[in-house]
């Protein structure tokens, strides 16, 4: 004789998403910035790559958006402990932007229109790991989230994905950016919980 009510299968354990340590799942898209949101018009926007020798490669908005782009779905992780999963972006791969750039650099400083900077190893921007993104969730990227274009480096904490990105400066030696000078970790791997210097 069965003592289980027909149709009762017990409570299923809710599967938890795989998040980096110390992170919680965000269902909205929090807006965090070090200062006021700049409003950069696309007719005045340009993206500039400056080599270690001072050579420059520049794109206007129309030239930039005419480059081959990719649609990517990635998880993003903020140092303030929220993570947002399966976010959809469109952007130009950094590999594409660097195709004709001759450099011996191992490091890059990303520069934003508001003066923000953040440093990255060049290898973390190559081989399909980073983009300059200009659309989010099938819409133009809003200024609050870094529009018209932001750096997207999803395998690192999101402060490395510089909002309102204006360009990349190639560097032979590493140097700290804005938050790195203020005590944030120089690299920022969320899976190793590298939030602050010494982590």
TrEMBL record:
Pfam families assigned: Oxidored_molyb
Entry-linked SUPFAM superfamilies: Oxidoreductase molybdopterin-binding domain (SSF56524)
Gene3D superfamilies per record: Oxidoreductase, molybdopterin-binding domain
Entries under InterPro entries matching the protein: OxRdtase_Mopterin-bd_dom, OxRdtase_Mopterin-bd_sf
Domain Oxidoreductase molybdopterin-binding span(s) in chain numbering: 35-179
Signal peptide segment: none
Name listed for the protein in its UniProt record: Molybdopterin-binding protein
